[in-house]
Design a protein that fits this description.
Layout (H helix, E strand, L loop, with lengths): L1 H8 L5 H44 L5 E2 L2 E2 L3
Antiparallel strand pairs: 1-2
């Protein structure tokens, strides 16, 4: 990636090579954006799953001893 970025500012690199580097960089940036989007979706999904787990814990009834709720 660094080589492609360097090629864009190097006066000794042909316009054809610079265009190729622009295309490669654009593809790499698109792939990186897709990966980040997938990570964000995964994080959101995991966060929602954790929230569901907390909701389930909050709704669990406290155990009773002798018909009365046990105090904590």
């Amino acid at each position: 990636m660094r080589g492609h970025k360097a090629a864009l500012s190097n006066p000794n690199v042909s316009e054809e090579a610079k265009e190729h580097s622009r295309q490669v960089l654009a593809e790499l940036e698109a792939k990186a954006a897709m990966k980040e989007q997938k990570r964000a979706v995964r994080r959101k999904s995991m966060s929602q799953e954790e929230g569901k787990g907390r909701e389930q814990v909050e709704h669990v009834e406290q155990p009773t001893v002798g018909g009365q709720e046990e105090s904590h």
